[in-house]
Amino acid sequence: MPPVSLDLIARNLVAPGKGILAADESLPTIEKRFKTIAIPPTEENRRAYRETLFTTPGLGEFISGAILFDETLRQKSGDGILFPAILGRQGIIPGIKVDLGTTALANFPGEKITLGLDGLRERLHEYRELGARFTKWRAVIAIAGDLPTLTCIKANALKLAMFAARSQEAGLVPIVEPEILMDGTHTLARCEEVTNLTLRAVFDALLAHRGRLEGMLLKPAMVLPGTACPHQVSDEEIATATLRCLRRGVPAAVPGIVFLSGGQSPPQATARLAAIHRAGEAPWALSFSFGRALQEPALAAWRGKSENTGAAQAALLDGARKNGAAVRTRVGT
Ligand code: 13P
Questions:
Q1: Catalytic site residues?
Q2: Secondary structure letter of residue 218 according to DSSP
Q3: Of 41, 80, 90, 285, which sits most exposed with the smallest number of CB within 10 A?
């Protein structure tokens, strides 16, 4: 695929007033989510839940793309239509999580490295045939005491860059996700420092591997104090730190930055997204790629019952609309 097509997909994923629905929970993660509503994690329940989300009437007005898990990309609606086609009808671009989760980084207690490069070229080819047009790889960086180490940051950055290069080679837009976890007692300033270091390592690696910055998106966490930090701060302070950090670390050639929600409540994530937009001008589109912050209200309304489909869809649409409005809040507009 010519690079210009990659660029176009990347730009379409951050079209004005739109963001991404992350619905790519792995089997253990969706099991954890279903536990909160006491639903058994059967394949049929996972399929029915995802069908409920993807067939929400009007979702395409606020959602540009949806990230799926391997199983979901191959599943069908009740009337036999593959989910990528169901999404396509709504004008939503299908994407796929391609990493295989994390494992302990040897010799670095408390740190993790993401798995999934082996056999990735073949999987990417198949995902494209199945209708995916973009991919996601999540690296996890924890803050605690002296952690993270530079070794952990650089090892994860290298794998993100190799994933991105392989995706672009396969004609798929990579979403590069270096998630700084919000668990811990660290301050906002410490999170900013770690985010700065991480962004520098990620973009060094992307450029070293000849990644095309115009044909990718970055998916970072917002810069936040740890959830157990005694000094919590205002949305405006979070927005200022986040925008400052991104301006320092993300080249203007990148078309868009889509935040993960990372465990923030849905109203918090939306309020902070809006605050980041109010904090000043930015060279890239700034939007969302929320999982929990978009899905929690929908999951709670659904409860595994088909008679709750309408309520679940109304909850999802409401969240999508609010986040879509948050990313319309641009300075000077
Ligand atoms: P959350 O918004 O729930 O953090 O999920 C986004 C995501 O895709 C994590 O990999």
A1: 177, 219
A2: E
A3: 80
Q: Identify the residues whose C-beta falls under 6 Å from ligand 1.
A: 22, 138, 177, 260-262, 290-293
Whole-prediction pTM: 0.97
CA distance 299 to 295: 6
Residue count of the chain, please give it: 333
User: Under 8 Å CB-to-CB from 300, ≥6 apart: which residues?
Assistant: 36, 37, 315
In the chain, where are the structural domains located? 3-326
Look at ligand 1, atom 8, and give the residue with the nearest C-alpha: 22
CATH 3.40.50.620 fits 3-326, yes or no: no
Would you say 319 and 288 are in contact if contact means Cβ atoms under 8 Å apart?
no
Count of other CB atoms within 10 angstroms of residue 200: 14
Q: Tell which residue, 279, 223, 294, 229, has the closest CA to residue 23.
A: 294
Ligand 1 atom 10 nearest Cα: 138
pLDDT digit string, tens, across residues 102-156 = 999 999 999 999 999 999 999 999 999 999 999 999 999 999 999 999 999 999 9
